[in-house]
Specification:
Immunoglobulin-like; 6-stranded antiparallel sheet; alpha+beta; globular
């Protein structure tokens, strides 16, 4: 009975630690932890919002088939939203922030 209680305590503790640890991605090819991205892509149905702590300079979005869907320049805001108006499920976004760094990410909608 004592072993079961110990295992339950360890499991609870490990779950708690994993919840409070900062969100970071792990690059297994290089055995190093990558810094978290300075932006988020939020989806709410077909409404997409890109949020960042820095100002967003440009947002480009392509369908998975390579068709350009969004090309928005000179946003100069820390948030940009748009609606998906086509019958596609997966997209690729390229986001440029005010510091000139570019990021790309795949995302999907329902």
């Amino acid at each position: 009975m004592m072993k079961h209680h110990l295992w339950a305590t360890l499991l609870s503790l490990s779950l708690f630690v994993s919840l409070i640890a900062p969100a970071q991605s792990y690059n297994s090819d290089k055995n190093e932890i990558a810094a978290p991205k300075p932006y988020k892509i939020l989806t709410n149905g077909k409404r997409i919002t890109v949020q960042s702590k820095q100002n967003i300079k440009t947002v480009f979005v392509w369908t998975a088939n390579g068709h350009r869907f969004i090309e928005q320049k000179e946003i100069n805001s820390n948030s940009y939203s748009f609606n998906i108006t086509i019958a596609e499920k997966f997209f690729f976004a390229r986001i440029e922030l005010e510091d000139g760094k570019m990021y790309s990410q795949k995302f999907g909608v329902q």
